[in-house]
Amino acid sequence: MISIVLIGTGNIATHFFDTFLQYDMLNVLQVVGRRNESLHYFSQKTETCLLSDTLKKADVYIIAVSDDAIPEVSSKLKHVTGLVVHTSGSVSINALNTCKNYGVFYPLQTFTKGKKVDFRPIPICIEAENEDNLKTLSFLAETISDKVYQISTEQRSHLHLAAVFVNNFTNYMYTIGNEICDDHKVPFEILEPLIKETSAKILTLKPKEAQTGPARRNDVATMQRHLEQLKTKDKKQIYKLLSESIQKKYGKKL
Amino acid sequence: MISIVLIGTGNIATHFFDTFLQYDMLNVLQVVGRRNESLHYFSQKTETCLLSDTLKKADVYIIAVSDDAIPEVSSKLKHVTGLVVHTSGSVSINALNTCKNYGVFYPLQTFTKGKKVDFRPIPICIEAENEDNLKTLSFLAETISDKVYQISTEQRSHLHLAAVFVNNFTNYMYTIGNEICDDHKVPFEILEPLIKETSAKILTLKPKEAQTGPARRNDVATMQRHLEQLKTKDKKQIYKLLSESIQKKYGKKL
């Protein structure tokens, strides 16, 4: 049995909380927030307190707050003996090195407020400074997820950067596609099956091999027409830069 | 019952052929290719011939060849009385205006050689010059798909451009993410659930509202660190341009 104090009341903290409650092996002793109002949801199911109050003694303290707030929270956890972890993709494990026992517990997924999450297929990247702490994190992670990876701070920083491309920038490509449709009164829903299949394809094919399109086949006439169709400078620049980069990758001379 | 002559032996022609065979209402009289070798698969199930041979009389002639080859093929179909359609996203309906009856039959999906396709959820965009031809295309499209849209040549050109963003450029974002992982010995599979969820999210949320990440929240320190981490000039430029464009869209001063 692992006892947990959860610090944070946002999106990720809420998803963790709902998930931990499902497992008898995990016991959320306390949820810690900045304001009483944000603790309401949690207080119906466990004890809550403010960050300035005295925290309970627990096996693991999970800091699920914004990156910027991690230093402030960790400074309040200097004297606890339990294992203190943060849940950030981009913050070093050393941000917690004023604590006695520390580590990282990073779930790699995009979370939507209010949408229920099944953690079983979600990768959890764990990191710790010694074997005992690693064992504790492994146990905690494997209790809720089928995909647990031991990932160093350096690897995690690259993973986080890769996630910006495959999640944030990909979503921006969807936004541009949506705007083009709206501008010309074409229902964006026509593109939904294509979007779904594009993401499904890479489960069986490496993305480099799955690449298609005018840039991939060096179809200069189509690219020129597309550039003329695009209305804003931003969209033109993005189309041009990405097309040229694809052309170079596949060995076409510009 | 609609009788069909299918011209082309590539990816899309093969997927159409396999699908048409499943419906009693559709009768593929003939498949037409450029070389005998490419006709082998089709000749086991229907009649085949070369483009230089005499084509059968059919209700619909479907040109499923590369965009560049459409003029050559259509010039051979000048004298047929059936409805001649091409299957391209980016070629005007007028490319076929030397034919007596002509139109467009464009399935909007990315097809993988050898991977079976269910056309029912795939949007088919149809266009024709008169009501009778439109009715024929509606019937044909609705026989194989649940999502049939009447789309003009102009709308289709914008749809095709939007598809470049949501499919080709998105796949390139996956490629870059994959390279970053490979460079740092992180398994790319860790990102697969994130990729899947990113594409699933837009079914319930407009992409503009689903945008997250350092650029969206104007997190300058993280963006700076990411730029330093990126090794190639191409990746740096892409990261910078997309981040700046996102920052501008969400009203942050640069």
UniProtKB/TrEMBL annotation, chains A, B:
Pyrroline-5-carboxylate reductase catalytic N-terminal domain mapped to chain residues: 4-78
Record-annotated DUF2520 domain positions: 122-246
Signal peptide annotation: none
Superkingdom of origin: Bacteria
Pfam families: DUF2520, F420_oxidored
Name listed for the protein in its UniProt record: DUF2520 domain-containing protein
Organism phylogeny: Bacteria, Pseudomonadati, Bacteroidota, Flavobacteriia, Flavobacteriales
